[in-house]
Write a structure and sequence with these properties.
This protein is α+β, with helices and mostly antiparallel strands. The chain is 18% helix and 26% strand. It has six helices and 16 strands.
Length: 317
Amino acid sequence: MYRQTVLAAIAAATIACQPARAADPAPLAPTQIVAAAPVSDWTAIAPADLLVMDLAPGPSGKARRVVIQLIPAPFSFAWVGNIRMLAAAHWWDATSINRVQDNYVVQWGDPDGEDKVLAKPLPPGLLKVPQSNYVVAIDNQALKRFTPASTGESKVSIGKDSYADGVEFRNGWPFASDAKTIWPIHCYGTVGVGRDMPPDTGTGAELYAVIGQAPRQLDRNIAVVGRVIEGMEYLASLPRGTGDIGFYKSAIERVPIRQIRLGGEVPDLPRYQYLTTDSASFKRYAEARANRRDPFYIKPAGGVDVCNVPVPVRRVP
């Protein structure tokens, strides 16, 4: 008994003399991973690739600016080219937001666009785009140039989903694909081209932004031309239209658009960066979005929808 007591005392003393083991650090939340990302993991967005929409001030008198990043070629390049021409011509000035459908889209353009007499004339030279341009062939040489290879891994794959054989991120954008083609997808904040019934594909004069759950059924049916990177709150909080599919019934309900300009024409525009999607930080961020282990969560989900991994965008500090 005495021997056991002595051995226990020695063991206790030994344990007490050992340095305390540091507790394992708590897993980081996605926002913390983004905040800790080094400068080298961020990519600048050129002002020329931004579309800046200034709405009339809200009821409080506060300015309302929406900043849209246009998708790079080879995706939707003909529609984006039209949009650049429309912006350069200041065509959207004094047009309006005409439709706000709950859990779906906000849509803007010429409110008289369907009236051949009252419709605002479009600038000359706009392209008529075929439906085939909704997708890009996997073996397209421009796609190979578009995809970065700076880290030896050109894309971040999320796997399959209900709408495509594969979903992934390339060069800062989410895409879906099959064995032959790849296409941009509809997530919250995505900007697309309004159109009439097929084979019409729209010119880009009428645009919309997704303000609800990702309407992925629109993928490959409507052109995706960009995404809102700032000012989404000014679109998502607008009064819903009470007409069919959310159109405003009267002119007084419409939200006036003061102007839409390309970023290079806006002197006070901040600089923006996105978290490079082939970076180590983005891969950690995507994994954390799929498996939340930070203290609030009890059980990791084990997977994630591609639209639930929004690419982080920040103003340059």
